[in-house]
From TrEMBL:
<dbReference type="InterPro" id="IPR029063">
    <property type="entry name" value="SAM-dependent_MTases_sf"/>
</dbReference>
<dbReference type="Pfam" id="PF10294">
    <property type="entry name" value="Methyltransf_16"/>
</dbReference>
<dbReference type="GO" id="GO:0032991">
    <property type="term" value="C:protein-containing complex"/>
</dbReference>
<dbReference type="InterPro" id="IPR019410">
    <property type="entry name" value="Methyltransf_16"/>
</dbReference>
<feature type="signal peptide">
    <location>
        <begin position="1"/>
        <end position="22"/>
    </location>
</feature>
<protein>
    <submittedName>
        <fullName>Uncharacterized protein</fullName>
    </submittedName>
</protein>
<keyword id="KW-0732">Signal</keyword>
<dbReference type="GO" id="GO:0005829">
    <property type="term" value="C:cytosol"/>
</dbReference>
Amino acid sequence: MKFYPNSIIPFILLTLVMISIANPADELINAEGNTECCKKLGTDPGIESSSDHRSDLTASCIRTLTTADASINCNKDNALALVPYNEENILPHQKKERTFQFRGQTLTIKQEWNTLGVAAVVWDAAIILCRYQENHPDLVQGKSVIELGAGSGLVGMVAALLGAKVMVTDRESVMEYLQKTIDFNLKGHGHTVSIETRALDWTKDAETFNETFDVVLGSDLVYIEEAFSDLLKTLNRISRADTLILLSCRIRYDRDRSFLSMMKSDFNVEEIFYDSFTDIRIYHAQKW
């Protein structure tokens, strides 16, 4: 072992500190183990559009600089912090509130990640499906539409604004949040739309669900493999031969492809849209 004189040790420590300052903790280590240097995380403040939001699944990163509810005293030592707290640095799914514009209407979503998890967050797949509807209003206008796994109900609300008769569904535990979000954005602001909420648990409610619809909408539905067969049964139950099914998702894992393969046993499935910025795909499906 080699020993250094005492006079050199402070110099070595100072050098290490300077290196850490020159390379601040703005690295993200993603799930595949790669390291990316990010100058900025999250989105610009204000109203979001399909062109200005960043991919919300930067959340696949293991480590981030800030969190929405970080215990940082912004009024005390923030000016001296190596990485100051900044609203712009918060990832989209961590923001307490997000605002969108569709068809000239402003929709505000209060996200409740800490209490309801993924159901109370607006993900890229939902935003892209909303934009797709906005660009192809004839797909839903005047149609009976159901949204599965609605969460915040953003996709269903856009369909309603485009003139569809909409039913938004999710598990019972999400219904209060879903209803409040819809009331705040549509019924509370004088919009005349046709939209209702109903609890629908694919594992037990599908067998007693007797309605069919012209259009079925779903975003990021296939993240729990154990639910695949129940979701497929539900899709069969609520659709007819002429029902249009639109599903948006990011293909992350083999299990995502597995669900699409399962669907093809009962449905003709085609990829009809791909957004390279967010890596979101939209699939069109109809019964054989």
